[in-house]
Amino acid sequence: MSTTPKLDQGTKPTYSVAVSSVKELANLNSIPSSYVHPTLTNCEANDSSPDDGSIPIIDFSLLVSDDPDERSRMIEELGKACRNWGFFMVVNHGVSESLMSSMLNKFDEFFNLTAEEKLQFAEKHVLDPIRYGTSFNVLAEDSHFWRDYLKIVVHPQFHSPNKPTGFREVAMEYSKKVRDLVAQLLRGISITLGLEQQYLHNILNLDSSFQILVGNYYPPCPEPELALGLPPHSDDGLLTLLTQNGIGGLQIKHDGKWVQVNPLPNSLLVNTGDHLEVLSNGKYKSVLHKAVVNNRAKRISVAVANGPAIDAVVAPAPSDAPAQFKAMVYKEYLEYQQSGKLVGNTCLDVIRI
Ligand SMILES: O=C(O)CCC(=O)C(=O)O
Ligand SMILES: [Fe+2]
């Protein structure tokens, strides 16, 4: 990949990039050396446990039930899932199967556009509303990742590429449905933290929440044991909701081990992000996760990152315990994270007291 990171001191990061894509590499018999991850040659990719059914399941219909007992029981489950895993599957969430599969299909159609069409949307700056790119963080990484992406800011302003046909309508509906779901989950989470149910909504100004819709495209990889789709990372923001095209690859770190995630049919996968770790003053850990690749079938995942308002100041909610994190404006956090200054660290380390 020919990328030339350019970081002018004191200015915003820019990319001077002839972005190439892993989709164009999928027909090779071996992967270019820049995609080989030295630590994987001993098959770390396979060093994970299968999903044994212990990943928490949240029945959304009970979380919003009129029956107060059912509701309290599910809120308790939600608290346990955030505390012990930072990850759960939501079932009966009300987002239709057809909407989820249309969203996956529209991203598939996008990635099938010509390179020239896609490059109209090539990433230039981390806060650009529409960013097509490849790998993980080209400014900071030594070796590359087997993944192309399209990231779109869909709230508070909605953006959409003008191709493929129908992408805009599906993306608008899907992101709105996910936002509503997230608002309900965050009400439950506020309660689990001993806060008033609208606390997170109000303090983070979630009427203007920063929401990004991300399509991840992992073509079949000729040497999957040498490559990674995404490195271990945590997500910024509050909650990320993910769906995939029936092909597995997501792994989460739990109790020091990598666990393969096998989603229940029609479930949405949820992981807690860095800013929930800050808000909860470390009670809820932002879960580390990664994506492995395979040589059989392309994998597409759609992740929706749901954050605070971009200008919200995020700090631990008031409690008796000493604050573990410094306050930081969400926008500064995002810029720092993508600046190339973080090598192998999470931005949380920068604000940890
Ligand atoms: O594709 C996946 O399973 C993970 C995607 C992800 O972690 C992300 O987009 O941040
Ligand atoms: Fe992620």
UniProtKB/TrEMBL annotation:
Residue ranges constituting the Fe2OG dioxygenase domain according to the UniProt record: 208-308
Transmembrane segments: none
Superkingdom field: Eukaryota
GO terms for MF: metal ion binding; oxidoreductase activity
Assigned keywords, A-Z: Iron, Metal-binding, Oxidoreductase
PROSITE patterns per the UniProt record, alphabetical: FE2OG_OXY
Assigned protein family: Belongs to the iron/ascorbate-dependent oxidoreductase family.
Name of the protein: F3H1 protein
Source organism (scientific name): Reaumuria trigyna
Phylogenetic lineage: Eukaryota, Viridiplantae, Streptophyta, Embryophyta, Tracheophyta
Originating gene: F3H1
